[in-house]
Amino acid sequence: MCSATATNAVDPKIIDLLNKDPEGLAHVSLEYFPPRTEQGVKNLHARMERMLTNTKCLYTDMTWGAGGSTAELSLELALHAQKTGHVSNLHLTCTNMEKDGDPIKGVHDALQAAFDGGIRNIVALRGDPQEGENEWTATKGGFTCALDLVKYIRKEFGDDFGVSVAGYPEGHPNRISELTEDEVKSMSESELSRCCTHDGIAYVCKDDDYKKEMDYLKEKVDAGADFIITQMFFDAEVFKIFVEDCRTWGINCPVVPGLMCINAYPGFKKMTKFCKTRVPKALEEKMDSMKDDADAIKKFGVEYGAEVCRTLLDSGVKILHFYTLNLEKVVYGITDELGITSGLTEQSNESDAKIWLLLVVPGLGQVTQLSAVLVKE
Ligand SMILES: Cc1cc2nc3c(=O)[nH]c(=O)nc-3n(C[C@H](O)[C@H](O)[C@H](O)COP(=O)(O)OP(=O)(O)OC[C@H]3O[C@@H](n4cnc5c(N)ncnc54)[C@H](O)[C@@H]3O)c2cc1C
Questions:
Q1: Cβ–Cβ under 8 Å, residues 1 and 58
Q2: Which of 52, 45, 46, 49 is nearest to 73 (CA)?
Q3: Among the atoms of ligand 1, which is closest to the Cα of residue 127?
Q4: Going by CA atoms, what residue is nearest to atom 29 of ligand 1?
Q5: Among the four given CATH numbers 3.40.50.300, 3.20.20.220, 1.20.1070.10, 1.20.120.80, the one describing domain 14-173+206-376
Q6: pLDDT in tens, 206-231
Q7: Which of 147, 209, 257, 273 lies in disulfide reach of 175, CB 3.0 to 4.6 Å?
Q8: Centre of ligand 1 from the C-alpha of residue 338, in Å
């Protein structure tokens, strides 16, 4: 495993790290979101340092708050990560980035500040609707999608940055639709592999829509994205099919699986419903059977996470990207189980954490205040 050292003035590009040792040991990368309080920031600094030392994570993602809400803090935390030995992967969205009356200036300034601070890796995203809004709308004269942002980065900054983009193995939520009873009965094999049911309602990204998603993903990569990080999934088969589909579409770059840690029952239920995530029947039944036992859920979160990761590693995946939720226990449990690390489970310390009642939606910005998963800062 390798990681940057604290002396790096300028980060390496992640794509070069990914391509360096394709046959080598498995790596992890870790994703965090900006906390809401000063104390939360201090705690996160300490946790990120511990997790870098403990996991030797290849790179570290910092999300860009939904609706641009944490822009300054995201940048600050990503720069702090860069200065303290992480290879920093800064998320950047097109939402609400207007500055001095210019819809693009906010984006440009953020990129310039990241570059000046030694960051060389950007996750180019459209972003989600601002808080309180259901539909995403572009600022007048601003970018309309992540593709615009990828093109802008390449036009203005050339190869200064490594760029990654989001991929959706089950389709983007905007293109996942509710099915009628007749549609449920006539689903294609491919639709069956990614459909889900929440509260008795079946949903799927239909084949025609999935094709549009893949065509568009290819455009993002052709415009200059170096690799793809996926939305969370709980069915390893969905990821494997998605990678095969990428290759069929001529998308030949690395596809990094985004892995959500199962930490608590209410959060899992709300998040999977909100994102219309496929939850395999066996997983659903097991979770329901343990719903009142928080410790058992965490333990199972480790077992299930490790099982998914093992399937991915067996299929040739070389890097596992964890949505940490700013927590360490379950990540350590999984990496210990996989033999990537050892003895971390016993050491993990979340006692500095303050508990917030929030719904964290990874891959959907950072925090939506719908309710209830225990998130500690
Ligand atoms: C790994 C990951 C990290 C994320 N991090 C953050 C974060 O830090 N902050 C945050 O706010 N959100 C984050 N998100 C959430 C993301 O912003 C949302 O999912 C958002 O709704 C879409 O962003 P995108 O970059 O995928 O958008 P886009 O790539 O622009 O796509 C959005 C949808 O529009 C369709 N579309 C757009 N343009 C076209 C076109 N020209 N032709 C056809 N179809 C088109 C796409 O197919 C897709 O369905 C993340 C998501 C992932 C998977």
A1: yes
A2: 45
A3: 17
A4: 146
A5: 3.20.20.220
A6: 999 999 999 999 999 999 999 999 99
A7: 209
A8: 31
